[in-house]
Amino acid sequence: MKQVVIAVDLGGTNTVFGVVDKEGKVLHQTSFKTQAYPEISAFVTRCGEAVSSLLKEVGGAEQVKAIGIGAPDVNYWARTIENATNLPWKGIVPLAELLEKETGISVRITNDAKAAALGEMLYGAAKGMKDFIMLTLGTGVGSGIVVDGKLVYGRKSFAGELGHVSIRPESGRPCPCGRKGCLETYCSATGVAQTACELLADSHYSDSLLHRLNPSEITSKDVFEAAMQGDALSNEVFRLTGEWLGEACADFATFSDPEAFVFFGGLTKSADCFMPHLVETYQKTVFDNYKGTAKFLISTLKDGEAALLGAAALAWLDETV
Amino acid sequence: MKQVVIAVDLGGTNTVFGVVDKEGKVLHQTSFKTQAYPEISAFVTRCGEAVSSLLKEVGGAEQVKAIGIGAPDVNYWARTIENATNLPWKGIVPLAELLEKETGISVRITNDAKAAALGEMLYGAAKGMKDFIMLTLGTGVGSGIVVDGKLVYGRKSFAGELGHVSIRPESGRPCPCGRKGCLETYCSATGVAQTACELLADSHYSDSLLHRLNPSEITSKDVFEAAMQGDALSNEVFRLTGEWLGEACADFATFSDPEAFVFFGGLTKSADCFMPHLVETYQKTVFDNYKGTAKFLISTLKDGEAALLGAAALAWLDETV
How far is B69 from B76, CA to CA, in rounded Å? Predict the structure, then answer.
């Protein structure tokens, strides 16, 4: 019986390999700098070495069900990484195929935000759920949508870009994507900092602690720390952030009628500040059918392990290997 | 081999039964008035008689794969009709179970708007597609979302209420559902009439043909007919309607990355008036990943048969019967 999977968290800085069991225990781990391998062939060779070293730990390839990879800009159907902006390799990289040839082990690859949703379903806050939406509130807003126990990929596997739903189509903030009022311009760490900067211009908040900082350097962490000290402006920022997220979730509910919304990412450290407003706005504005039916949860996976566990879940949940 | 299914279009006025083959040919048909049976037991008995009469036509129950029902307010998971506002029976009606007992044939039941999407997938504009969104533009706006070849139901089978996504969360029209700016307050037949009424107050359109009508009696059909005669106000109504729909579809794309949007319902008779604006706005505003990838199609099923074919598709596509 296959005892473990090998999970790969392929990021712009580090590529982390982990051996993970069915219960989500990371048994062994190894990593290297992604940018040290500007040629994909050298990267694949280095991945093969990492896998070999881990196989020695677990007693050989026959113990491994599959390799699961979470990476940016993945085309799930084609099993490729395509035009990634934060990785060294240009164009279309058939990484799953290359790594299968290198290791002889089945490889599954998906987008990191989607893998995170699978990790949550197998090991985390969404354990046992079949319908939920995961929102990653970081520098941007990522998402993974699970319907009837399966990730929603769509035609080209670009489904689940909920950070680019426009919540203010008329007057909204410009988004680098070209749209106006995208959710991620408001409810990401960057969005929170921008909201704070906008409120600093309001004379009502002339005594805000944030006036001590250079506006262009304010981070969501600064806003959180000020809010913890009772700063009215900072609390208003999180009230607005919660309202925007609550409105957005009310729209998302009409799509897939989820059992829960699961939040992950740096901004969830401030969840106590925005979550009550999120839930209140959601319950107030959502279509009647959905009132009171959804849970609002924070990821229960450890920051340092979530990406690996997502990639591990991809390998465990694949019924074809 | 099973040759046919029995399809049931259960509406507030009529309940229509049809024998439908795999190619979508309606071979036999019978119907009766729904409201003539205020007691569910009498309704089920009457349904049994309708089935019996159709079985005689096809050569017995062994020719029938299953019965498929499209009805309002269906809980797909529970196989019940729940608190339907336009049907005579109050509370929760376990119709699938009752009709199975009455006929001895497997019964599948789903929401009529969702059945319509299945009909389109098996017989219509979405033939062969696995990822598409169907929008029914009628008195309201209904929808059915297909992901990887399957309908999205969600936790309580309330998924796909896209008519209640708010496209104008701040300044939008009040919706009977309690939300503000719901898509259906703008892009339904009712919404089109309201847009026309609002524009009539604009002195710019003092020569509009619609001024000849009583504003409270203007219908989307009147607006369409005036547009066909070159009425500037009416053309502006459809330009706005197309823009709103295009914006909404751009948001929906981020959810499930569909291959196509399929439009159905009375308002699609005016598709020539709004579709060019819809597509233009979509391409202009949609997130880069989706640009140029979605088709915009009008249902190819006949008005009078679409509901039956949807119910038939439900029965044909169910792999468990």
Answer: 11
ipTM of the complex: 0.92
Same domain, yes or no, for A139 and A224? yes
Residue A159: list chain B partners with CB under 8 A. 131, 147, 254-257
d(CA B99, CA B198): 48
- A287 CB within 8 Å of a chain B CB: yes
Optimal mutation site among B145, B289, B291, B293, interface A, most CBs of chain A within 10 A: B289
Residues A157 and A251 in one domain: yes
Residues B160, B222, single domain; the answer is yes
Same domain, B108 and B191: no
What are the average pLDDT values for consecutive 10-residue runs of chain A, which has 321 residues? 91 96 96 97 98 96 96 95 92 97 97 94 96 95 96 94 94 90 96 97 95 95 98 98 97 97 96 98 90 94 92 93 75
The reported pLDDT for the residue numbered B240 is 98
The residue among A156, A255, A286 with the most chain B CBs within 10 A of its CB, best to mutate, is A255
The b/e string for B8-21 (b: 16+ C-beta within 10 A; e otherwise) is bbbbeeebbbbbbe
Both A8 and A74 in a single domain? yes
First to last CA, chain A: 12
Domain interval for residue B290: 128-300
Out of B179, B252, B293, closest to residue A155 by CB: B293
Q: How many domains does chain B have?
A: 2
